[in-house]
Predict the structure.
Amino acid sequence: MGTARDTIRYEHLETGVVRIVLDRPETRNAQDKAMLYALNEAFDAAAADDEVKVVVLAADGPHFSSGHDLRDASSPMTPFRPVGCWGGFDLPGAEGWLAVEEEIYLGLCWRWRNFPKPTIASVQGKAIAGALMLIWVCDLVVAADDAKFSDPVVAFGVGGVEFFAHPWELGPRKAKEMLFTGEAVTAAEAHRLGMVNHVVPRSELEGFTTDLARRIAAQPSMGLKLAKQAVNQTLDAQGQWTALQAAFGLHQLAHSHNMQRFGSLLDPAGLGHFGGAPPVPVGPRPPGLGDVEVAHVAQAEEVEQGRHT
Ligand code: ZN
């Protein structure tokens, strides 16, 4: 989808290394469908290019990503070509939204998790909710010392983001604490828990990540692919994919429950979690979405003002 490229940048850093950059800093890199399909297109391009050995996933602006752009939730799927077998995106009830999230969240993330070449997430500032999904599908994570990782969706009546890798990334106890409290995990703590490979000063993030990518790109592509596959298959043998699918089912139950109770995919009580930021509706309210977009705006404001830790 050539129309979506303005949400990301695709850069050939040096021989063997490509950097994909989230390029919506004005929304704190909120992920809309255009960005997700642009990302997918970029990963496909990097997979098809035999000169590319390593992919860095980075983000412009002070923060990596404020998560999914919920203002985009009701936009049509028709401009995009699904990469999975799901359809019926406009069907009523839970059926349509299940299909959308199966395609654009779980489906795309699992596809990128299985991208055959090494990937490195380069993270600064806040990484909230859906931001974690982009980071966790990468093989390595380099964090600036100001990076903070959070999934505050329990406050909105949901158990966690759609790609529920929290226990795998943080261990079960810390995963529960992160989810129960909605509080952020610092870069240092994420490093201690093994979720992050390296923590570096903010000013050194780009250089350090590029150097790491360069060292990996010096290795033979076959060895890199087999090493990645072997580790991923170990996780598969441990049941990671089965667990992700089970949690995704619970996530859909949450959306359905919230829709029945509040007429919204998310429990609007979650707004209080963001310090009572004034709800500022943006644009026409999509039918059936209730306070979803309001919640997102509150979240974006918190990120903007640095209040949400
Ligand atoms: Zn969802």
